[in-house]
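Take a look at the protein record below and flag anything odd:
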Amino acid sequence: MTSIGIIGAGNIGSQVARAAARAGFDVVVSNSQGPATLAGLVADLGPRGQAGTVDDAAAADVVVVAVPLGSFADVPVEPLAGKIVIVTSNYNPGRDGHVATLDDGTGTVAGRLQAHLPASRVVKAFSHLSAADLTKDGSPAGTPDRRALAVAGDDAEAKKFVTDLYDRAGFDTVDIGGLADSWKIGMGQPAFVTRQNAEQLRENVARARR
């Protein structure tokens, strides 16, 4: 069974951990405060979950980075080489400060993590819904008006993994392109934090403007 490591156990990181554990994956959660602070989350995860250090999470087969943009520099590089790395982070100037390449539209959050992890297969996912919705808004495949979530990345295998994880969590997938397209689901865009089926998500992505 593929293991999933979570670096950053805040709102969205903890919810991805819950969704992954429910989907049958072994999950290792970590944060900057240490494993002892994650006892409550680990209890929610059940037998599939455990707390560890960031290095423990980085040793998993697939790693989720769910930390603010300013903490990308602290994400370990060598342990993630060759691995699928899912980034959930969004650009929030009020929290992150202004970043010129994100302000002028020449860069993306996911692209910045890819530059930090040049040998990893970075994919953007789980970034445009309210955290609570991840474990309460899913439904079985084929359900009419099933909610859809977007994925963006340059690696086909990474996007296929996310597609399977989305489906197990109860969501359809819309592939919106490469990492350069990942801004289309960012804060302030029509697809951000909106309940939408696959057709509606495609329409909202098409309406995105930088």
Q: What stands out?
A: The first strand starts at residue 3 and ends at 7. Residues 156-169 form the longest helix (14 residues).
